[in-house]
């Protein structure tokens, strides 16, 4: 190449013009080699393709989650699950439990699926199947300063009021006829009329009268006549409170107890007779100011108490509930058929001046039990 042409070529190459050859980069040479060898487009420097997950593994994750949720639902609502798959009518027990009673209901519970109570399902066919067990069915309201008590003292009074109901109506020894010592310990020992009532009601030497019947406060069965089915007593009710006389905190308890019982000497098989004795009590308790009333710490005075019972006996009081088993059920024909009551109806308060359901007051006919 002549010297003039070579110098012009060098000038053009330095200026980036003309047809000066350009040395390919290492990346370009790699691309050219891959294309030539059939390797396809290379992966970009800043790109990332995650490794593919096997579908089977994802499936196991989903299956495990579904299984965990299913187990949780079964644990929380076993009766509902049985109902979904047609596992019997449950007598109402396959329905969700009722919310706690926070105020007086406006209507009686609806009808439940028909079903006979059995040893295995003593609340079958009863609204009580959806009630809470024992003390859990007694609603205790929030506490606030009332009368001579501050909020903490009111809370303690409410708790002890419920303790009295538990000791009087749910204690297993008391239910079998023993002395209600725990309940009596919560009563003001200086209240003379109540002391006289207790002395007469719990005496073994004299038969009780409608006014001295221990059932007004305490639930008792004769062990030789009836025994409870299982360990569960269904309850529904609530406590309310207000300021009473002389600044006292007056607590009113309105609670229904449902006791499933069977004959003490009866058959333990599937055909065993099971009766539900239904008891509603309304008790007004006064937690008095010790500066104004003679009392003892931790005790309360009774203002009034009333009882309504079904399947507890329709004759003169004996001091015990007397469920009408067998032939006795037919003998209950002395009940007034024109007076019908629903023992599960809690829409109206009990009359403290009313009777106890004994013969002197005339027995009404229960529409269900």
Quick description:
With 369 residues, this protein is of the alpha+beta class.
Share of helical residues: 25-40%
**Cα shape:** elongated
Please tell me the total number of domains.
3
Number of β-strand runs: 9
Taking the sheet with the most strands, its summary is: 7 strands, mixed
The Cα radius of gyration reads: 40 Å
What does this structure look like?
- Helix content is 26%, strand content 17%.
- It has 369 residues and is of the alpha+beta class.
- The longest helix has 22 residues, at 55-76.
- 30% of the residues are buried.
- Residues 40-63, 78-90 and 355-360 have low confidence and may be disordered.
Index terms:
single chain, 369 residues, alpha+beta, 3 domains, seven-stranded mixed sheet, two-stranded parallel ribbon, 9 helices
Write the layout of secondary structure elements.
Blueprint: H1 3-15, H2 26-37, H3 55-76, H4 78-84, E1 132-133, E2 138-139, H5 151-169, H6 172-175, H7 181-184, H8 192-201, E3 226-228, E4 234-243, E5 249-263, E6 275-287, E7 301-310, H9 327-330, E8 336-341, E9 364-366
Parallel strand pairs: 2-4, 8-9
Antiparallel strand pairs: 1-4, 3-5, 4-5, 5-6, 6-7
């Amino acid at each position: 190449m002549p010297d003039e042409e070579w110098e012009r070529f060098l000038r053009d190459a330095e200026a980036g013009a003309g047809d000066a050859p350009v040395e390919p980069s290492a990346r370009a040479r790699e691309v050219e080699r891959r294309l030539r060898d059939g390797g396809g487009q290379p992966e970009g420097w800043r790109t990332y393709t995650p490794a593919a997950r096997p579908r089977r593994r994802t499936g196991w994750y989903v299956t495990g989650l579904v299984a965990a949720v299913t187990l949780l639902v079964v644990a929380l609502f076993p009766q509902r699950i049985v109902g979904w798959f047609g596992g019997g009518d449950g007598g109402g027990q396959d329905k969700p439990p009722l919310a706690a009673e926070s105020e007086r209901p406006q209507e009686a519970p609806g009808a439940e699926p028909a079903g006979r109570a059995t040893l295995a399902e003593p609340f079958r066919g009863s609204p009580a199947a959806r009630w809470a067990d024992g003390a859990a069915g007694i609603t205790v309201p929030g506490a606030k300063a009332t009368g001579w008590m501050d909020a903490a003292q009111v809370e303690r009074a409410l708790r002890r009021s419920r303790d009295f109901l538990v000791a009087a109506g749910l204690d297993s020894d008391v239910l079998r006829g023993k002395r209600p010592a725990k309940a009596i310990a919560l009563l003001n020992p200086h209240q003379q009329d109540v002391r006289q009532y207790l002395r007469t009601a719990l005496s073994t030497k004299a038969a009780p009268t409608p006014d001295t019947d221990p059932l007004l406060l305490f639930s008792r069965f004769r062990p030789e006549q009836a025994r409870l089915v299982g360990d569960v007593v269904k309850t529904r009710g609530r406590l309310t409170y207000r300021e009473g006389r002389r600044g006292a905190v007056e607590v009113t308890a309105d609670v229904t107890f449902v006791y499933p019982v069977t004959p003490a000497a009866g058959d333990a098989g599937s055909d065993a007779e099971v009766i539900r004795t239904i008891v509603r009590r309304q008790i007004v308790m006064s937690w008095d100011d010790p500066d104004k009333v003679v009392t003892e710490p931790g005790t309360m005075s009774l203002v009034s108490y009333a009882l309504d019972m079904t399947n507890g006996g329709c004759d003169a009081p004996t001091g015990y509930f007397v469920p009408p088993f067998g032939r006795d059920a037919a003998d209950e024909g002395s009940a007034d058929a024109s007076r019908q009551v629903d023992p599960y109806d809690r829409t109206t308060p009990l009359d403290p001046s009313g009777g106890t359901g004994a013969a002197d007051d005339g027995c009404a006919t229960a529409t269900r039990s």
